[in-house]
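note to self — DONT lose this again. spent like an hour looking for the file last time. sequence + predicted structure for the chain T wanted, 363 res
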Amino acid sequence: MPSFSHPGAFARDIRLKGLKHLRDQPGGRYASAGQWGAAAAWGSGLLVSLGLLFSSAGPIGFLWCATSGLMAFFILATLCHDAAHGSLSSNAWVNRVVLTVGFGLFGVSGALWRWRHIRLHHVFPNVEGTDIDGEGSILLRLAPYGPWRSWHRLQAFYAPFLYVLVMPHLAWVEDWSNRAMARRMAPEHFRTRAATAEFLLVKLVHGGVALGLPWLVLQPPLWALGLGYLIFTGVASILFVVIVAGSHLSEEAEFISPSGDRIHHDWAEHQLRTCLDWSPESRTAGMLSGGSNAHTAHHLFPQAAHCHNPALSAIVSEAAAHHGLPHNVTSFAGLVASHVRHLHHLGRRPLRTFSAQPKETLK
């Protein structure tokens, strides 16, 4: 793995100010009552949507599939992401249960997702050789160091159709390869009977509730059952890619190819360079996106629940300006447009191989 430069003035400044802010909060770095209240609203919305789905007949059922997927995404973003970082609650068992149940809504192992997310993504976003988002598929060229193929010329047009499949692919395909990798690299955590039982139980319960139960209760034709499942998972998939991954896969975010095993800036500056925020100080945007609108603050303070991101983002912006560093900020529409332009740009045949550059000219 590459290594960063020693922490600079910005890193020291932001750490002192950010940690002081978190210490001054009544609940510390953990979720506030407001965050739990928002999560309760999304959970209620999911139960109502499912109730309407199982009591409906005909095409309107697809509307409730979409609404259920939306509510489930809000739960994933509002609770489960923070639980993965141990910042939802001071009780470890609460974080574990929320992580397992929330990701289990989509048939994904929360334990595996947490292991991969924290081990790779949070340390080395947009770094060649370690980038789990930018180097994940040959069907899309999402990073400039990814290999180019002729079909990438059209990726901006077909990408949304692939994005719909992210959650079911993660549940039924990728999770198995992630499990094999985790069992090799962290056998003390993933070669246990408990880990195996948890993994299989998530798959069985998800399959039974998302496919078996609708089949028994509604008795739909197979095409309708498949379409409803695709709508439920697809809504969450698209939101997850655009709101979360789009914060890194954009025109403003930098992509880094290390010089040997070195990165020519420190870890804190790296988070500034590789994230794109949208309305980062908006509490409404934070509530709807689980804090992904303030992605830079989250990467700099991953141990803090997302309810703290608006204040932390203000601290980040002020410190970045003071030290002459960029803080990439746009609107939600700007985020989507930037991601689309990013897809168009990387879909063109590259004129030269991407390589490391001095940090003053990286872009």
